[in-house]
Fold:
Amino acid sequence: MKFVRMSSRLAALAAVITLSACGGSSDTTSDSSVVVPVTDVVLDEPVYPLTGLPISDQAAASRVAMVVKIDNHPSARPQAGINQADIIFEENVEKLTRYAAVFHSEGSDPVGPIRSGRFQDINMVGSLNKPLFVWSGGNSKVSSAIAKSDLVDLSYSKANTDGGFKRNDEYRAPHNLFAETTKLWTLAPAGSAAPVQQFAYRSVSDANASTSKESTGLKVSMDGVKVQWDWDPATREYVRTQNGSVVVDPQDVALSVPNVVVLEVVYTNTYSPTSKTLGTGKVYVFTNGVVYEGTWSRNDRLKPFELKDSAGGVIKLTPGQTFVQVARADKTAVVTAGLTQDDVEFP
Structure:
C-alpha cells in the first residue's frame, strides 16, 4: 500500500504569514502590470527561503543549500530524500532523467542513490548562493568545469568518509551510492551562507489570480520517462506517477508536492543533453488546483528564475516543496477541469 503523505510542510502551511507586496498575480484585484521581483517581496515574519514556510529551526534556516544529484534509473528506485528536499529539478540526461534535489530546511539520512553531475547543473542551480554539490563524480571535462565554478564540490572522491558515502547492497551498482546530509553539511566551507528566496509565494488568504485556469493535473514527456502529476484536493498536493507507477520513497510514502513548475527549455548536444536555463521560454505553474501559463526569464545564473503569467504579473506559488520539470518544448499536456488523465495523451 502506498501512502500519500500529510507532510510537515503541509501542516505548517496553515501558519504561513501573509506576504505583503505591491502587485503580483495572486491577487485578483491587483494591477497585473506591476511586476514585483522575488527579492522585493516583504515578509511579515521570517520564512525558509526555498519553501516560504515559517522558520521552525533557525540553525537550519542559516545553513548553506545542498544540491544532491539523485539517480532516476529504474534500478535506483525508490530514492531516499525525495520527500525531504525543498526543491527538486528533473533534467534530461542520456535517454533518461536525473534529479537535482535541493536540501535546506530539512535533510535526509540517507540520501540517494547518488550519481554524476552534468555541465547543465552549473547554471541550473547557480542562484542558490554557492551550494554544496553532492555527486558521484564525472568525466574530466565536467569535473574540471564544476571545480572552476562556485559550486562546492562534494563528490564521492572528495567527501567519501566524512560525507557518509557508502554502498547499499539492496541496490545494484552503480545505482547504490548513498550519503548523509547531516555529515555533508559539516563540510561546508567557512563563510557559507543560506540561499536567497527562489520563488514568490502566496498567503493562505490569497485567491487564485484571474489568469489561472482550473486543472486536475498534467502529463510531461521527459526523455525516457512519462511523468504524470495528479491534483489531490484532500492533501492539496500533486502526486507523481512515473511510467504508470506512483513514485514512492523507501518508506513507501508517495512523492507529492504543492507546486509543479514546468520550464520549457532548449536542450543542446545530442548524446548528453544540456539544458539552456538562461534566456526565456514558456512556463506552466501548477499550484492550488490551478495552472498558470506564462514565461520564465533569467539572464544571470546567479539570479532565480522569474515566472510571469499571461498578464505579466509574478506567479506566486503555494508555500512548501516545489518540483521543477526542466522539459523540452511542447512536451507538456495540461489536464483541464472536466477532463481526466485518461482523456489526455502524453505529448
Summary: Confidence is low (pLDDT under 50) at residues 14-43. The first strand starts at residue 3 and ends at 4. The domain at 65-185 is CATH 3.50.90.10 (YerB-like fold). The two ends are 30 Å apart (CA to CA).
